[in-house]
# Entry
Amino acid sequence: MSKIVFINPAPGKMAKGGNYHSTILESISKRTYSYIPNLCGLILAALTPDKHTFVYLDEEIEDIDYDEPVDLVAITAMSFQANRAYQISSEFKKRGVTVVMGGIHASIACEETLEHCDAIAVGEGENSWPALLEDFENGVLKRQYRAGDYPPVETLVSPRYDILKHEHYLAYPIQATRGCPYSCDFCSIKHASGHRYRMRDIKDVINDIKEAEKYNGGNVAGVEKKAYFFVDDNLYVNREYNKALFAAMAELSIVWDGQGTVNTARDEEVVKLMAASGCRSFNFGFESVSAESLKEANKPKINVVEEYNAVIDNLQKYGIAAGGFFIMGFDGDEVTVFRETLEFIKEFNLFQAGISVLTPYPGTELYKRIDGEGRIFNRDWMKYNSWNCVFTPKRMSPEELQMGFEWLVVQVTSLEHVREVTRRFWENASQSSKPTLRLIERLAIILVAAFKIRGKAYKPHRKFLYWAARHPKASDFRFIFWTALRNEFTSKISGHADPAELRLKNQAESGARLGNDGQTRTRTTA
# Structure
């Protein structure tokens, strides 16, 4: 029998300011929070024989005790978590503990990762973890365990939700499918779950939700249950499967969020079923408002800019908040792209906008292309989090891309902006699938704002919460708090200048200086 500790590393532990905690959430309930646990750890726990002790340690919500007796440490990491994962591994190896690593970064940067641990698992865990664990028990651990092909859906296990510290999470992860048939230039999904779209038995998905419901004691304010988030890379590929899945979920009385391509909202029958099954928000990979950039991303057939408005409207008329992901820094992007994206978001009342910097993740076609062109100037993996410019764009400087990204994030998360899009959503979306707030929910918001969220810096947040609690058509209790939290997270960003305006200003000032120099030379000559 061995004690196994699975660790989800928090890169923020390496930063000066510590972890990315929310002062608002911690002031409400005096504990740290993370949005959602890592599903990988819950699956590995289910694959581990009962004779072993399996501990799930999420560094986002707790610290690591390196001196606690442990036999095997398993660390997962995306690229932006890699440096912290290496640091954690080093501490355990100093103490003679065996460390294995997996996740998408280990699956791509195999040789690099092996320099920091005893063994790596490449690919999906169902095909590698059992053999790795058996070899560890027998003292014959190999350096690499390759999953080979992707496991068939009938062998996929149900996650073990029982190992979580439930009070520290705002939502539960759920998964119905794996893989994505598309080949976006910037995406690394093919290295994680492949192109073949695999659909789990709907009964298994429903059973997973029912199992998680046993532990669903409520959200941060204790007023309503936690939501579910589909971590599927693309939830909508097979129409008939989706129809059957959402019809089955309608019996569960849950709320959930998900993500997928714009094809989802083109199917009105499916959208109706989504709303009836408890869907409250759905995020699309819009990527860009430029047809040229979409072509570069290899998405011109899926995403048609002229259809974005209809896609958003089709969701929101059924009470589902439409969200969208936008990437800044494609080769076709000028410095005007930030203002153009903001105008689109405002015009079509996109409820949630996720803004990111184009990031050349290792293994992607994007990485191969711009690395071959010598344009990557930063290989610090911690910067590969979609918030930092690590390469030289073609039509703007790296500084302009970083500045424009930060400016746009501040704009779309400002309380003035989100109040307006929230108001328009509440007043125009269907109420049938998103009932208005109950009296107890309104009172909870007011009490939290009045007695829990203190300090002058949080006055705008209190004002927003009071407004939301009083609005007659207010709905989605958790969205109200999440909106305030998003503003809190991004309020630390310093970039408040539109680079297009700044460039024009600099050009004007430069022209003025040249004009003055010319006048000076003329007077001198005279």
Observations:
- The two ends are 95 Å apart (CA to CA).
- Residues 499-525 form the longest helix (27 residues).
